[in-house]
Design a protein that fits this description.
Layout lengths: L1 E4 L2 H8 L4 E3 L2 E3 L7 H12 L4 H4 L1 E4 L9 E7 L7 E8 L8 H13 L6 E6 L4 H9 L3 E8 L3 E9 L10
Parallel strand pairs: 6-7
Antiparallel strand pairs: 1-4, 2-3, 4-5, 5-6, 7-9, 8-9
Helix pairs in contact: 1-2
Amino acid sequence: MRLVALSSEMIRDLAAESPVEVDGDLLEWPADDRRVLRYRLEALAADPASAPYLLHVLLDDIAPPGSRFAGRIGCHEGPQDGVLEIGYYVSPDHRGRGVATRMVSDFLGWLGPRGVRRVRAAVRPDNVASLAVLAHFGFEQVGDQWDDEDGLELVYEAAVPGTPLPVHS
């Protein structure tokens, strides 16, 4: 499995329900995750430079064509003072196999060299699988918030592994 960043053009095409080819495969976006495309399109319009952070797909290299989409991870916007919020999704066929853990690990590794120091994630309290993934990476709850679509969300944060701690004088 490998994580592939989507370009701003790919994000726009997917949001418009146009076909997008990723590494020789036609990418079919899951119907139950289409709203994320709208959010990423809005983020792209607000800040075109945020494109590299917005959407990465995890491709299953051993799956047959048409079912290679294992999941996606990305940020709600580009980094603000070294901090950003991530969100991820695992396709139903790939759940329960460590895919979210793999995506978060790979994505945090990608973020570190780009100056991102802290990562935030908001999760519904009943999303046991996602809460376990965040705990695995040392995320700690820093609060909660109300989301108009998802209801109550718990807000977690963690340092990006491998990023230096700030030096205070």
